Amino acid sequence: MLCQHVCQFGQKLLRRRPLGPKQGAESHLARCLNTLDLVALGVGSTLGAGVYILAGEVAKDKAGPAIIICFLVAALSSVLSGLCYAEFGARVPGSGSAYLYSYVTVGQLCAFITGWNLILSYVIGAASVARAWSSAFDDLTGNQVSRVLQGSFSLQAPHVLATHLDFFALGLVLLLTGLLVLGASESALVTKIFTGVNVLVLSFIILSGFIKGDLHHWQLTEEDYKLAMSASNDTSSLGPLGSGGFMPFGFEGILHGAATCFYAFIGFDCIATTGEEARDPQRSIPLSIIISLFICFLAYFGVSAALTLMMPYYQIHPGSPLPQAFLYVGWAPARYTVAAGTLCALSSSLLGTMFPMPRVIYAMADDGLLFRGLARIHPCTHTPMMATIVSGTFAAFMAFLFELSDLVDLMSIGTLLAYSLVVFSVLVLRYQPDQNLSKNEKTEMEIIERKPAPQASSLKSVPEAGTVQALWSLCNPVNTTPTLKSGHIAYGCALLLALLLTILCLILAQWPSHLFSGDPVYITGCVLLLLLIIGLTFIIWRQPQNPTPFHFKVPALPVLPLVSIFTNVYLMMQMTSGTWARFGVWMVIGFAIYFGYGIRHSLEISDEQPPASSSQTLDKNIPGAELA
Question: What domains, with CATH codes, occur in the chain?
Answer without folding.
Answer: 31-221+238-429 (1.20.1740.10), 439-601 (no CATH)
